[in-house]
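Hey team,

Filing this mostly as a record. A colleague (T.K.) asked me to run one chain through the structure pipeline before their review meeting, and I want the input and output archived in the tracker in case anyone asks later how it was produced. No errors, nothing strange. Just documentation.

Input sequence:
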Amino acid sequence: MVSFQLLTAQTKPESFYNYNFQQISKEEFDSISRQKGYLYNQYNLEDQIINILFQSKTRGKLKQEQLDSLKTQLNKIEPLKGEHIVIIYYPGKDKCNETKQNSTWNIFDRDYKKYIENLADSNQFWIYNNDDNLEYYYPRKYNWTKDENQYIEKLFFKMHYPCASSTVIDKDGNFISNLGEFGKQHVIQDIIELKK
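Output structure:
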């Protein structure tokens, strides 16, 4: 019986999807995943294995009504004062952030916040989807706020990306997102790029 279960687990069908969640062939998936800047999530479901590609850095522009709605949501947390919005997004515990000690992630370095403040007039928001393991990410020092109704997730983060994600939005709604593991240098670079 055990060997049959193992055999069944090993023979689950696999499905492959591109970054637009459109099904593609394994060959196309393998070809894209070898390109720089592409990663993928794998979901082991009861009846199949699903592989979904994503780009670690994405760019886009919010429609005016999306930008207005986002500002309304964020104003409930803290009054908006600047031209740029920075969102640090914690999706919840996964293999990347299952630490049992305070995080050493460089986004918490003292010089980061000061550098951001000198670089651009901006608001920074610390948003979480699931607070499992969030106690190791300095909740007393940072105002982590629940993503009510997954509003931010639906707008920028279409699935659970490993570790955490970020997005920087300018006054016109242009944005750059880091999907999955990133550091303070990525956020700084995103602000510089959007200021051009």
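Quick notes for T.K.: The chain is about 30% helix and 25% strand. Helices lie at 2-10, 26-33, 64-75, 110-119, 151-156, 184-195.
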